[in-house]
Amino acid sequence: MEVIMTNRIVVTKTHIDGAPKETDFKVKSQVLAQSAQPAGSVIVKNLYVSVDPYQLNRMKSDSSSQSYSFLAAGIGPGEEIDCYGVGKVIDSGNPEFQEGDLVVGLLTWGEYSVLKPGSMFRKLDAMGFPLSNHIGALAFSGLTAYAGLFEVGKAKKGDRVFVSTASGSVGHLVGQFAKLHGCYVVGSAGSKAKVELLKEKLGFDDAFNYKDATDLRTTLKKYFPDGIDVYFDNVGGEMLEAAIDNMNAFGRVAVCGVISEYTGTGRRAAPNMVDVIYKRLTIRGFLANDFMSIFPEFISKACEHMGSGKMVSIEDISIGLDSIPSAFVDLFTGGNVGKKIVQIAQE
Amino acid sequence: MEVIMTNRIVVTKTHIDGAPKETDFKVKSQVLAQSAQPAGSVIVKNLYVSVDPYQLNRMKSDSSSQSYSFLAAGIGPGEEIDCYGVGKVIDSGNPEFQEGDLVVGLLTWGEYSVLKPGSMFRKLDAMGFPLSNHIGALAFSGLTAYAGLFEVGKAKKGDRVFVSTASGSVGHLVGQFAKLHGCYVVGSAGSKAKVELLKEKLGFDDAFNYKDATDLRTTLKKYFPDGIDVYFDNVGGEMLEAAIDNMNAFGRVAVCGVISEYTGTGRRAAPNMVDVIYKRLTIRGFLANDFMSIFPEFISKACEHMGSGKMVSIEDISIGLDSIPSAFVDLFTGGNVGKKIVQIAQE
Lengths: 347, 347
Fold this sequence. Notes:
Strand content of chain A: 25-35%
Keywords (chains A, B): Oxidoreductase
Shape of chain A: globular
CATH superfamily of the largest domain in chain A: Medium-chain alcohol dehydrogenases, catalytic domain
Pfam family, one (chains A, B): ADH_N_2
InterPro entries (chains A, B): ADH-like_C, ADH_N_2, ER, GroES-like_sf, MDR_fam, NAD(P)-bd_dom_sf
Protein name (chains A, B): Enoyl reductase (ER) domain-containing protein
Distance between the termini of chain A: 22 Å
Largest interface: A-B, 39 and 39 residues
Oligomer: homodimer
Organism (chains A, B): Linum trigynum
């Protein structure tokens, strides 16, 4: 029996070039019928969807980096917004997927998603972990942390590691991976509560509220009297400059995000390149999807650490499709802690 | 018989924090006697000495990077200024060196140098090349070009390579190494004559005068319609920003020098870090002396190319100790072409 239903999706009203506001978004209804989809499509009911800072770059009117990755492709007003998520199959034109199967992959900000043949999704084996973990710590947030720290940052035992936005979706995992690897780890965050979380729950050696710092360079010097070996950068701007001032010779900067620059409000970092030369620093941008080859290694480590309770996944879950705009806006105002997720429906 | 003589050396009068002027320097006389030197010292008559932009960083009042390399150690007013050079032994307290031996290594800006035990110098086998080549193309300028291009920039056949200060001591060798490796190479320089030199004598695919460019980003787009894979950066500042705007995915920036920033007159580069992430760029500072392990490989290649006439070393040689200040000042005003060398004495 064919499923015909109404789907509600969240879309942008216009391109967004500054900080996002809830009013930049609206909910749009569409009719969903399997017969209208390409052969082999799978329709899923969305359970959990991810909201991530990088999505803002795709909503800008001028997305100069469009061609470099599907993660950078522009999203126009009114268009479906894809996102990582977990769903349950309700109708399948693909013999490999049956009604009731759980899937994880690129869904859309909506109540339902149509997964066309060739798009990125797979059957999900939850391995005993909450479903929401599979779009965070056990998915790209975790892989980003792991690959950025070890493959890009080349962190080794005893290294001094600094993480900015340390209580964010990726940062809180970076710090835990680094501690479990024998590094000294300090994180920066934007509130007293987040700083406490880093120190007390997540095992960071130290943490500070960057909003209390009058001079980031001096602040970092205080927390890293012996210098920084690896900086996991989530913010760019002044923090990146201050970190480079405090890097040790042959230090590595893994540039994961520059959230201070996404909204066009923060000024760009102008790092001291004389330091970059004399200290032989490496500054390297990366995207987790270039590291799929180490996904098995990552997932094995993450499951081991999380299964034994040595690592925790902090999730900040909003409820319902209509909460997506506010959840997204929160990412840029420091409102979230850990991985921001929207639960669309109960399993 | 002990040698006692008067040595004339060039020193700074004060620290230099902006662009250097000839009047920042003076010639100072000192008495030189073997008996006053540490046991095992070797006194050489300087034949050729090098003048290099990095030396300015050592003359600044605030040299924050002092501890990272001997190439960054501060040099105070009135102190001997060390430099790479070729000399001839005139008195030796070291049985391994005889009067008349040619040596290459860290000499000083002077008529004579005292090479103390443990300092960096070795006997020179000129291998049929002019002595001056051994402080340029066949020494650190060459190694800098080779290591920066292949080890840091990871240039491979077919890559599109951009070199700034392309007619400089290192740049003109980078372009030739890249061409001989099968790369497409464009250089920037500061005069019409230099641009002609790059295109007509050095075999660059193309070259442009950056002073004629109203918009460096657009200019680079014109010369690299298919993007830049490797940028060998000698200048920093706006050129670095424009290059990053034009880099291809997985591009590499080898940061060799940021001459536009040494004098404090040029503004620092504020590269687009969103591009650095989405294009997964690597920006890496380096010093040639970290690549001594590939010196044999480099010197073999360089001798092969230069011996067969496929590569040429451009040298800009001033005559006499008193020409050192003007030779040095020229480096920052674009006055030199190729490797700047001062011939102190005839062999």
